[in-house]
Each structure stands twice: as C-alpha cells, then as structure tokens.
Amino acid sequence: MIRALGSVRFTLVLLGALAAGVVALLALDLPPTWCVAAPLFALTANLLAAVATNPAFRRQGPLLAFHLALAAVAALAAIGRLTYLQGGAEVTSGQPFTGEMVGFERGPLHRVRLAEAAFVNAGFEIDYAAGLRRGPTRNLVRWTDEDGVARRAQIGDQDALVLRGYRFYTTSNKGFAPRLVWTPAGGAPHEVDLHMPSYPVFQFGQELEWNLPRSGTTVKVSLQIDEDIIDPEKASRFRVPARQRLRIEGAGAAAELRPGESMALGGGTLAYVSLGSWMGYKVSYDWTLPWIFAAAATAALALAAHFAQRWRARPWDVEPA
Amino acid sequence: MTPELPWLWAALLAYVFAGSLAAGGLVLGRMPERAVLAMIAVGLALHAASIGIRWERLGHGPFITMFEILSSNLWSLLFIYALAFARVKAIRPSAAFVLPALFIMMGWLLVTSPRDGHFPATYRTVWLYVHVGLGKVFLGAVLVSVGIASIVLARSWGIGTQRFARLPASERLSELAFRFLALGLVFETLMLITGAIWAQDAWGRYWAWDPLETWSFLTWLMLAFTLHLRATLRVGPPVGAALVIATFCVAFLTFFGVPFLSTAPHKGAV
Given this model, what pLDDT does residue A81 score? Predict the structure, then answer.
C-alpha cells in the first residue's frame, strides 16, 4: 500500500493532477487553495511514502534533499496562508498611521497587530516623465522603534518599511487631502482630513460625498484645481496645488472655499483649513517568506548537485553498463 | 529610424546566412561548421551592439516592449546555442533545424514596432536582471535540447540519415537532450525563486497566480513530468524527443505569448 503510494508512476499522475488544477485555476478562476492544495498535499504524501519505501531514493542525498526542500516549500506556503495579511491603508502626509486599513484579508490564524506598527507619513515626491509616466516614489516616514529610538527612512515602490513584520509599500494610489473643521452648533469642533479620489487617475473627478460628523448631514465636496499639476507634455512632479478651491454643496447651502475660509452649514460652521496630500500603502505580512526562499534555494542547489553528481559519474555518450 | 536598427538588420542577415549554410550543409551532406559558428558569432556581435545602443539611448535594458524582449531573447538563445555548438560536436548538425526555426522569431522581430517603452518604477531592482538572466539560460538550455531532439526525430522519420550517421546513437543523443532539459529545470527553478523575490519586492506579494506566473509554473510542472516520465516508463528516443519539443513549446508560449495576451501587473504596468 505504502509502496504504491510512493511510486513514481503515482508521482506522474499527481503532477498531471496538479497541472490540471493550475489550468482550472487559470481558466475557471477557482480559488487556488482547493485547485492546488489537494494535489500538493497528495504529492507530499507520495514523496514521504517514496522516502520510506525506496532505499535507492534515500541513498541519493542531493535528490532526496531536493524533494524534501520542495515539500518544505509547499508546507511553508500552506502555513503562510493561515497566518498572512494583505491589505491597503491611506495615510495623510504629516499624520500617523494608527492601524486603520481601507480593507484587508488575512489567514485564520493571523492576530492583527497593525496598531503596533505605527509610523508617520512625512511627505512624498513623485516625478512624472512626459506622457504621464510615473517615476519612482520617494516617501519619507518616521517611527519609533522597539527601544524607543526615533527613526526615519525613505521608502518607495519597492523599498518597504518593515515594522513588527508588516511591510508597507507605497503605491500609485495617492491624492489630495483637504483638512476641514466641522463645528456643529453648540458642539465641539471635529478636524478631518478628507482623501479625495486618486490623482492623476481621477484628475477630472475630484469629488466625494462626506457625512458631517454627528450631524446626519451629507455634503458633496469638490476640489477645483486652477493650474496644471502634472503636464502630460513634459516632465513634472506631483505637488499640492497652490491655486485651488473647495466647493461644498449640501444642507441647502453651497459655497466655494479657499484655505482659511468657512461657511455656515446646517446649523454649524465648516472651515477649510488647508490642502495636503495622502499616500495609499499596500500592507503585507507573511513570516514564512524568508524560509520559503531558503527552502526553494536549497531545492534548486540540491537539484543542481544531483545532476552534477550523476553526470560526472556517467558521461552522456557512454552506454550504461 | 532609430540608430540601433541598422545593426540589428546586419545581425539578422548574419544569422540568416548561418542558418542557410547549416540547412544547405545538411542537404549537401557536409556542413561548414566553422563558417556557421563564425557567422553566428558575427551576428551576435552586431546584435549586441544594437542592444547596447538602444540601452544607452533609452537608459534601460531590453525588458519592456515586445521588440526588446524578442530581440534580447533571440540574442540569448543564439548565444547559448552557439556555446553548445562550439563545445559539443554532436549538437552541430542540429543547427540545420534550430537556426531556421529561429528565423520565425526574427521575422516576428522585424514586423514588431521598435517604439520606446516606459520603464516602470518597480523594474528598478537588481532582481530584474537576475530573474531575466536565469530565464534566458533556462530557455537557451531547452532550445539546445530541442536541437538534439530534432536530430533524434529526423532520424526516426528517415530524414538526413546519412548526414547523421556519424553521430552517436539516438539513445545517447536522447540522454544528452534530457541532460540539457534537466539543466533547464534547475534554471527555471531558480528563475521562479528570484521572480518571487522580485514580486515581493515590487508588489508586496511573492506569488499571486497571475497568468505569467501560472504558465511559468505549468512549464516547471511539464519539465518535472517529462523528466519523471522518461525515468519511470523508459520511453524511447522519438517519444522523448517529442516530449522535449512539447516542453519547449509550452515554455515558448509562456515567454512570448502570455505576457502580451495578459493585462496582469506582471507586465510591469504598475
């Protein structure tokens, strides 16, 4: 029974099943967990049975190491799916990230500790080439490390900020952030940074609906930019516009505000303080990654060693004894 | 016209001349091996100049447009094939099959627009060079394997029997073809590993089953399947040769088909 489970013919069947699972994943858009996990699990069982029943397999050290390393890759990837986190966050320039995400997915065993990965988005620069071609993002960040020491760094498209195992990458998703203060009649003021739609993707759709805090009133907020920020004809840099207005409509009132101006709205006062920017981050967590790479590299090196050993022992143009 | 194009055309002429010499040699029963190798070398030098001039002009390597990818892969395939041609005598007659087969790629290159492409921010990493370089060695090794497999298949169909009479038996050639295929497996494994590292660096995920990743994995499975099949069922040289060619077809489709049919981020369009 175990011998049959560990046979190379069964390996062929399982490799075919895995290929079919991958094709199903591609063609039918099925979840990878079920298409790939089942044949991978069976291949691992096949390998362990082969190790137990085939002494020749055990004698070939590098070949055994290759297959065991592959099994380790599969096992680590499975564990990684239980403990991973993947999501996105938006942080206003000059403000801290406090663990609030705009959406994320996680493995069932992941304990969310994003609040421990606090940092400040200290502003960013992005150069554009003619034709709206985005260059590298340079984002300054500040944080306090585990020893209480203040740190700062520049991160970017592929230079992640790694805090408590969470990796923060800048993305092409970024835009303008008007700071507003809403003071309801007889109430305390609320300061809010609104994140307008991503720029320049939604250059001509810089508007959103906003629920005034504790008022039940919804207003439409439109950012009117009176200058070219990113000229598609020449090299430019993403920047906060100097000439701009904020149009507020709702609760029976409408007004265009410049920074420092305010308006009466639904029994309260809405003040436009300033215009800043926000950056969208991709956030990921997977502690298994370095181990997967180590196991995969071991597999490749062991495979190379196996073939080198075999080929040295018997040149290709010599008939086997 | 961009300055690198005349160099490229001159290189293609040298390759076509080398391929014609090889094919003519097969028909006439005597291949001028030194001349074939010399013409490939001349073509490679001219082609390298073309790639270098474009690299200097645009400030980035040949990684973005279809034109650049076809051009650089044509160069790397011929470079690896030329190395094998120079080192292993038994491979040389395969030039009559391999070089004309590469004429298809050359024709494709000629009708592809040489427009400039945008080098995305996520491509500014050393992993790009490592990943792409390993991929080129992988495909080159499989191409050499295909060349040898072509001889085995031609023999089994009775083509060029006289010309191939001096070569080792088909069983031995099949062994050699599978060794190059095994070499391809090692390099494809390394290519996938470095690709995953790059993906983690660039997009915050090491593997996302995008079409190119999925097809690369299928190619890896196909290689593993072919090697296991030969070891287990002891298939004859013609069947083995057919499997080698099928594996190359999947790899070729992965390299040159999928990136241009898919709109996934793997294209670097982020």
Answer: 79
Question: Within this chain, do residues A165 and A220 fall inside the same structural domain, yes or no?
Answer: no
Residue A281 inside a domain? The answer is no
In a domain, A147, yes or no: yes
- Give yes or no: residues A96 and A147 share one domain: yes
pLDDT at B11 over 90: yes
Q: Do residues A181 and A269 both lie within one domain?
A: yes
A78 and A122, same domain (yes or no) = no
Res B23 pLDDT > 50: yes
Q: What are phi and psi of A313, to 5 degrees?
A: -70, -30
**With a CB-CB cutoff of 8 Å, which residues 216-245 of chain B face chain A?**
217-218, 221-222, 224-225, 228-229, 231-233
pLDDT the model gives residue B121: 74
- Supply the pLDDT for residue B265: 47
Q: Is residue A121 part of a domain?
A: yes
Domain count, chain A: 3
Domain identity same for A121 and A184? no
Contact A212, A183 (CB under 8 A): no
For residue A158, what are the CA distances in angstroms to A166, A172, B210? Answer: 14, 12, 19
Residue A269 and residue A224 in one domain:
yes
Helix, coil or strand: residue A272: strand
Given A125, A154, A173, the domain boundary residue is A173
CA atoms of A277 and A170, how far apart (whole Å): 13
Instruction: Report the complex ipTM.
Output: 0.78
Biggest CA-to-CA distance, chain A: 98
- Domain assignment present for A319: no
CA distance B98 to B147: 6
Place of tokens 């024709």: B107
Nearest chain B residue (CA) to A135: B121
**Whether A12 contacts chain B with CB within 8 A:** yes
CB-CB: which of B204, B222, B232 is closest to A8?
B232
B124-153 pLDDT, tens digit each: 788 889 999 999 999 999 999 999 999 999
Query: Which of A22, A286, A304 lies closest to B214 in CB terms?
Result: A22
Write the CB contacts of A268 (distance below 8 Å, at least 6 apart in sequence): A182, A183, A184, A185, A187, A212, A215
Q: Do residues A64 and A35 both lie within one domain?
A: yes
Residue B20's pLDDT band (cuts 50, 70, 90): very high
Q: Please indicate whether, in this complex, the C-beta atoms of A316 and B172 are within 8 angstroms of each other.
A: yes
Instruction: With H, G, I as helix, E, B as strand and everything else as coil, classify residue B250.
Output: helix
B232 with A292: Cβ contact below 8 A: no
Chain A residue closest in CA terms to B167: A317
Low-confidence stretches of chain A (pLDDT < 50) are none
pLDDT of residue B270: 31
Domain that holds residue A161: 85-173
Query: Please, which pLDDT band fits residue B56 given cuts at 50, 70 and 90?
Result: very high
Q: Of A137, A172, A317, which has the smallest distance from its Cβ to B172's Cβ?
A: A317
Same domain, A63 and A102: no
For testing the chain B interface, which of A25, A158, A159 should be mutated: the one with the most B CBs within 10 Å? Answer: A158
State the pTM of this model. 0.78
